Amino acid sequence: VQLVESGGGLVQAGGSLRLSCAGSGLTFEDFAIGWFRQAPGKEREGISCISSSDDFTYYGDSVKGRFTISKDNAENTVYLQMNSLKPEDTAVYYCAAQFQYGSSWCSVISEYDYWGQGTQVTVSS
Q1: CA 37 to chain CA mean position, Å
Q2: Pairing between strand 45-50 and 57-59?
């Protein structure tokens, strides 16, 4: 099983980025997918997730209204569209998968089974 994040980079405040999380060796239809981030010196923060059935999404308060999670089961890829980026969004962003067949629920505080290697997002002021 492998999760690979991409799409990170350097962007000015107010700009946008779209992160991708591509999975291999697993079927995203059977997994809830979460996005997490960790800034230097800070604890890892769960920011968003989407249920295996695609009908439930969660956003943390810090990103609500600015970030959008979506899933393309045919491509086995989850996206995180990030708009109105702020310097405080600077972090390494990780995606993770939690086996959750047929569930209409997800959580960023439950344990995830597989993790990607992360992609750096830097927002300049």
Answers
A1: 8
A2: antiparallel
